[in-house]
């Protein structure tokens, strides 16, 4: 009895010590023992659940073989399944022994059949299979082909980049149309303004010519008047008499003249008067024609001015009405709006045209090249995706290169105009439009940056010190 009590006393501290150790270590080793006293069902659901959730680490609820080797083999087994699935499904020329070895190893994994020999054979067959399927790799096979039939990484990448390519293309078309409309409006306004300038110069020239002819006609009239004065002086006309009296008096005096006197004095005067009258008539006819031409040009000028006004309305509807910035001008100049309305409208139109030209310059120099470079980069990405999926070389690492590709395409598209002009481009590219060159720069980023590296290397190589000779 004493011995039993002594044994009992020795066992109790051990039990308490194990409980204390389990409590101190924070583990649940005590749960691996028998159920508590009073629990008649050691395999009751709550006890099994408590034991399951109390386990931690890679060996939790894992077969003995898997728990022994850890989870580092789980990934290789999954990779081996992908290799075998790809080789069989796509009819790859691989050794049947490798397929058999991998298949048996996959079946043996997690059971008592998994031995060290099985593991060594698995690794060797895995290596031979990976080498035989190159350039495809385990990562590219998993990323390209989904054995479960779900959406693979490659499929999601294709959908994503196709979607954004369409979005960029639609955005580019919208901006391009917006730019073309603004470019046409400003070109028409500039052309109409040039026509009005020419018409103004023509009208001024016609007015000068008409004035010249009118002045010459007036000179002829003055000469005719002087000749009549000579007649009055020669025949002593009554200066105060009326025209009929002068004529009657002149006729009476002419009848008293001899034919020689008439031939010598009167005939030359009247011949000169007739000549001057004919010249005056011609000059007046020319002047009248020029006046009619000026009226015609003035009507054309008025029509073009109306067209310019309509174009300015379209221009303000196309862009931002920057003329609102001139609201302060009448107050600043302390003039009523009615007194300087013409000046206000002219400045408003000039500001609208200047702002439109600035907008078009920004679009053509920055926004459109950037979008064309971005579209070129996405075209390259889609083409690369197609090739990599066909060759089963697409992997998750490819997405990193694609994510870096499109920012570089934007940079290449916007910067190609800074370094290369129409004169410095190669012969085959000099005939292309700047936007087409931006697209090519975005598509072939490597060529642009390789050229830039060579340009920088030419300067750095010349400045670097030469090695000393021995």
Radius of gyration over alpha carbons?
A: 52 Å
Strand content: under 5%
What's the count of strands?
0
Structural class of the secondary structure composition? mainly alpha
Q: Give the topology string: H per helix, E per strand.
A: HHHHHHHHHHHHHHH
Which regions contain 5 or more consecutive residues with pLDDT less than 50? 1-42, 44-67, 328-339
Q: What global shape is seen? A: rod-shaped
Distance between the termini: 101 Å
Walk me through what this model shows.
The chain is mainly α and 470 residues long. It is 77% helix and 0% strand.
Topology summary:
Layout: H1 2-25, H2 45-54, H3 64-69, H4 72-89, H5 96-108, H6 116-132, H7 138-144, H8 153-235, H9 243-255, H10 259-318, H11 328-333, H12 341-391, H13 396-419, H14 434-443, H15 445-463
Helix pairs in contact: 4-5, 4-7, 5-6, 8-10, 8-12, 12-13, 12-14, 13-14
């Amino acid at each position: 009895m004493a011995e039993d009590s002594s044994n009992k006393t020795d066992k109790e501290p051990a039990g308490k010590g194990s409980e204390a150790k389990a409590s101190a270590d924070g583990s649940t080793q005590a749960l691996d023992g028998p159920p508590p006293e009073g629990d008649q069902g050691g395999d009751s659901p709550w006890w099994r659940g408590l034991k399951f959730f109390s386990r931690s680490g890679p060996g939790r609820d894992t077969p003995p073989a898997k728990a022994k080797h850890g989870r580092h083999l789980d990934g290789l087994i999954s990779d081996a399944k992908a290799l075998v699935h790809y080789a069989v499904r796509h009819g790859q020329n691989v050794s049947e022994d490798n397929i058999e070895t991998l298949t048996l190893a996959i079946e043996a994994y997690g059971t008592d059949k998994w031995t060290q020999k099985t593991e060594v054979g698995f690794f060797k067959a895995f290596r031979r299979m990976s080498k035989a399927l190159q350039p495809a790799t385990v990562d590219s096979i998993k990323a390209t082909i989904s054995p479960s039939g779900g959406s693979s990484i490659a499929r999601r990448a294709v959908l994503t980049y196709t979607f954004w390519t369409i979005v960029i293309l639609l955005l580019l078309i919208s901006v391009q149309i917006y730019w073309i409309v603004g470019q046409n409006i400003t070109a028409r306004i500039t052309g109409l303004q040039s026509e009005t300038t020419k018409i103004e110069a023509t009208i001024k020239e016609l007015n000068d010519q008409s004035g010249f002819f009118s002045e010459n006609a007036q000179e002829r009239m003055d000469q005719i008047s002087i000749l009549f004065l000579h007649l009055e002086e020669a025949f002593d006309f009554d200066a105060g008499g009326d025209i009929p009296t002068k004529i009657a008096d002149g006729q009476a005096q002419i009848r008293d003249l001899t034919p020689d006197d008439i031939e010598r004095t009167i005939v030359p005067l009247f011949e000169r008067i007739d000549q001057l009258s004919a010249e005056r008539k011609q000059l007046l006819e020319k002047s009248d024609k020029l006046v009619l031409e000026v009226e015609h040009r003035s009507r054309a000028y008025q029509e073009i001015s109306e067209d310019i006004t309509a174009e300015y309305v379209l221009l303000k509807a196309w862009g931002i009405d920057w003329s609102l910035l001139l609201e302060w001008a009448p107050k600043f100049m302390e003039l009523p709006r009615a007194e300087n309305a013409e000046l206000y409208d002219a400045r408003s139109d000039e500001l609208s045209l200047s702002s439109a030209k600035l907008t078009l310059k920004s679009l053509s120099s920055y926004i459109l090249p950037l979008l064309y470079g971005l579209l070129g980069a996405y075209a390259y990405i889609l083409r690369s995706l197609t090739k990599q999926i066909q060759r089963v070389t697409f992997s998750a690492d490819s997405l990193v290169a694609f994510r870096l590709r499109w920012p570089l395409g934007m940079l290449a598209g916007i910067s190609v105009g800074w370094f290369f002009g129409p004169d410095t481009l190669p012969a085959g590219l000099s005939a292309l439009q700047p936007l087409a060159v931006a697209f090519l720069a975005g598509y072939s980023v490597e060529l642009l940056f390789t050229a830039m590296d060579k340009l920088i290397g030419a300067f750095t190589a010349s400045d670097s010190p030469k090695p000393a000779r021995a």
